[in-house]
Amino acid sequence: MTQSTGVNAQERWDDEGGSQLASLAKSFAIEEYEESERRILAFLGASILSLWDELPLDARQQVLNRQSAQAAFTKSALKAKIARLATDDLL
After folding, report:
1. Whole-model pTM?
2. Strand stretches in the chain, DSSP E
3. Which residue segment(s) compose the domain that 37 sits in?
C-alpha cells in the first residue's frame, strides 16, 4: 500500500466518523451488561464490521456519529432492544 493510499484511507475513515471510535468505545460501559447481552452486542458489532464496505456512506457516518451513538447508549434502551432482538425470529 502506498503512502497516498494510506492517507486516503485515513481521510475516508475520519470523514466517516471513525476517528471518534476509541472515545465512543470508552464511554460505553459494557461491564454493566449481562454476558448474554454482551454476546449479542458482540455479534451485532461483528456483523456490522463484516458488512462495513457494503454500507452506504451515510449509514457508516450514522453508526459512528458521536451524538447518535451516545443517545443510543442508554442502558435501558439498549437492554430493551437486545431483549426484543433475542425474542425475534431472526435470531
Report:
1. 0.66
2. none
3. 3-87
As a whole number of angstroms, the distance between CA 91 and CA 78 comes to: 17
Which long-range contacts link 82-89 to residues 24+ away (Cβ below 8 Å)? 82/33, 82/37, 82/40, 82/41, 85/40, 85/44, 86/36, 86/40
| Rounded Cα–Cα distance for residues 35 and 86 (Å) | 13
Q: How far apart are CA 36 and CA 49, in angstroms?
A: 20
Q: What is the pLDDT of residues 19-41, one digit of tens each?
A: 667 777 777 788 889 999 999 99
CA pair distance 82, 76, nearest whole angstrom: 10
Report the sign of the C-alpha dihedral through residues 91, 63, 19, 5, in that order. Answer: positive
Other C-beta atoms closer than 10 Å to the C-beta of 16 total 21
* Residues 44, 72: Cα–Cα separation, whole Å: 14
Domain count, the chain: 1
